[in-house]
Amino acid sequence: MQAIDFTVVLQAWPYLCSGLAFSLALTATAFTAGIVLGTGLALAQHLEIPVLGHADRIYIATMRSIPLILVLFWFFFLVPIILGSLSPDGRPISIGPTSTAFITFCLFEAAYYSEIIRVGLRALNRGQVEASHALGLTTPQAYRYVVLPQVARTVAPIVLSQTIILFQDTSLVYVLSLTDLVGAASKLVQLNGRFVELSVTVALVYLAICSLASHCVAILKRRTAAHAAQR
Amino acid sequence: MFDVLFDQASDGQRYLDWLMSGLGWTLALAFFGWWIAFAVGVLVGVGRTVERRSVALLARLYVEIFRNIPVLVQMFLWYFVLPEILPAAAGGWLKQLPPPWGSFLPALACLSFYTASRVAEQVRAGIEALPKGQAEATRALGLSSVQAYRLVILPQALRLIVPSLTSEVMAIYKNTSVALTIGLLELTAQARQVSEETFQTFAAFGAATLAYLTLALVAYGLMTLVDRRFHIPGPAQRSRPRFGRLRTAKGA
To answer: B232-246 burial string, b = 16+ CB within 10 Å, else e?
Structure first.
């Protein structure tokens, strides 16, 4: 085989960066949508809304029990059919792998975030809601102004750890042949055969980003703990 | 709906046999991977709590590296890169392993060492959750540090973390599916093959999904039994393992 030569990485750098940008965009989108949707799912369970609360428990347990790759395959197959059944002529609508990945990650992460938020909701003192009611706030107001801000603070470190896992998991869009960081590297490997240099580079990029992020989360966690101890 | 699974495939077997063979590889990977991960994880977790700086630093380095690189990338490192950087004889041997061993062994190594880094964090959290007096008492009793870990600290710490280990058990059987990227025909890969051959995607993915759900229930049930058998009796309120418990429990 060829001698190991890391100068190929320099030439490949711009392309790898565009892949990394895709990974980050997917992470950011799935984070935002996942938190919004996850909060909704968690509230439906917490407030024991009939039917909806049960349905989303089954949804969350299922999502958390099957591998992400299988979920990606499912959505790649199902989303066109579901969209088709909504359209007037009922024919499947193909939306391509990129949109599939975005939809899948949003819905998949919602299940994980919702479980974290639900635990946070359960840990909060019930007196907070009762006090809000006593002050004349409606239930939506109580959750909006009193409950959720406190839950957000307590679950922030766990949510962020989960987001680091999410960022790592976005590499799995490789199975849909998308050009994220791993996909970009694998496409370059097909051209120049430099898989040792490129795999190691990709690993180091992930290592740098995720280590940095987990240190920030650890600092935040210590602050949250110190803050909780003060009260 | 699942009728198609009993049809004959191109190789004379039934499609159901394809799925069963995939399930077998998934189980083998998860089972052996778990025990290696547990053994390595306990060692590294202990390493993070010992007083000797060099050992603690090495253990920390291990966790940092294996936890912060995606499983998929680690899979590629074990499968594509390791044979290249090993001495030629060893690398050649690895490359020439007959299928499926050529992908099974790298996948097993990858999942074991990745999961070990997560187990190590749980073990460390368990050890740190013990009252300081426990370690001090072992010293007062004249136990060596190996004896202290073996007889006093680990037995308690491991019993404390059974609920958080449940989520790691559930994570490892899900992560086995990543092995399909290096060509191991485990359950998800077989489901995709069945779907591609028969165009009965619902049946193929549905059967795989049911199998994974069953595995989740079995893993959860087993860990609940383990927890019931080993939990430290006493008045202290403890959390039971919950179905689909947080992956990022204490140690994360």
So the answer is: eeeeeeeeebebbbb
